[in-house]
Design a protein that fits this description.
The protein is an alpha+beta fold and about 300 residues long. The chain contains 6 helices and 10 strands; from the N terminus they run E-E-E-H-H-H-E-H-E-E-H-E-E-H-E-E. Strand 2 and strand 3 form a beta hairpin. InterPro entries: HATPase_C_sf, HATPase_dom, His_kinase_dom, HisK_dim/P_dom, HisK_dim/P_sf, Sig_transdc_His_kin-like_C. One of its GO terms (molecular function) is phosphorelay sensor kinase activity.
């Protein structure tokens, strides 16, 4: 219906739920009165306006449901990542017990022989270096295991992944290899800068240690234009010893090591945990003797 009031025309817009608005029309410029033809046109406009409003409401409802579903999925993925970490704790502690006993057993064994006969200065120096080496190893195992099993509270901020990688290169400047950087313009991500720098430092260190005789270390970033949602990618490639196919599924397990590099088998486990806690993905492609490429993906920040 339409209503006259002091030469104005009021067109109420009622949806199925409520009054959505009112269109107010003043007098015609010609000062003629509104006629039946005008009312027919106005009613057509009212119907179209209401149809548009219904579509807007429907879109807003879909948007709210989508955002709620996204939040549930986000929370579920975080809970899943946490559950997986808790589920691996038993195995982690078993492996930890074995790993920590190794350097302590070596120190204990050599100490037992120390007092059985006189020792010269050269032996004592060797013994000192042995103890320091294995004590350092034990401390490294303890600190890495604590970090793996009890991650610190993260401080998420908007980050440029290129800055994270450059920070990691400052923490562990690769030496003895040829470094190639191809850092593209990429959208920001949400994350903890310290944790992500730790992850990329471990990946860079892992790549360098896989090339004891030197080689090429390539680091590149790029946006994934083929993904349905904005995704930021980073790849770290080396031309080192590679990873046998039968070990590809084990490299992220705590304490797993190929015994070729200097690591304790914890670095990649820490990397995997950090990437998962940032709801990212990490995958590796490699063949024995042909190097390895680690690809990391993060959802871009809005």
């Amino acid at each position: 219906d339409v209503t006259y009031y002091k030469d104005n025309l009021y067109l109420p817009l009622f949806s199925t739920e409520a009054l959505e608005g009112i269109i107010v029309l003043g007098k015609k410029k010609s000062e003629d009165t509104y006629n039946k033809k005008d009312f027919t046109l106005f009613r057509t406009l009212m119907v179209q306006a209401l149809a548009l409003l219904d579509r807007i409401h429907h879109y807003e409802s879909i948007k709210r449901n989508f955002e709620a579903t996204q939040k549930k999925l986000y929370d579920t993925e975080r809970l899943l990542a946490r559950s997986e970490r808790i589920a691996s704790m038993t195995r982690l502690l078993q492996e930890y017990n074995h790993e920590i006993r190794t350097p302590l057993t070596i120190i204990q064994g050599e100490t037992n022989f120390l007092t059985k006969e006189p020792r010269d200065a050269a032996y004592l120096k060797w013994f000192q270096e042995l103890v320091l080496k294995h004590v350092s190893r034990a401390i490294d195992i303890v600190e890495s295991t604590v970090r793996l099993s009890h991650p610190k509270e993260r401080q998420e901020i908007k980050l440029d992944l290129n800055d994270v990688i450059n920070g990691a290169l400052k923490m562990f400047p690769p030496s003895g290899v040829h470094l190639v950087k191809e850092l593209a313009s990429i959208p920001p991500i949400m994350g903890d800068k310290e944790d992500l720098e730790t992850a990329f430092t471990n990946l860079i260190k892992n790549a360098v240690e896989a090339m004891p005789g030197g080689g090429d270390l390539k680091i590149r970033t790029y946006p994934d234009v083929e993904s349905e949602k904005p995704v930021v990618c980073a790849e770290i490639s080396d031309t080192g010893i590679g990873i046998p196919e039968e070990n590809l599924g084990k490299i992220f397990e705590p304490f797993f090591s190929t015994h070729v590099t200097k690591g304790r088998g914890l670095g990649l486990s820490i990397v995997f945990r950090i990437i998962r806690e940032h709801l990212g993905k990490i995958e590796v492609k490699s063949q024995a003797g042909k190097g390895a490429t680690f690809k990391i993906q993060f959802t871009a920040s809005k």
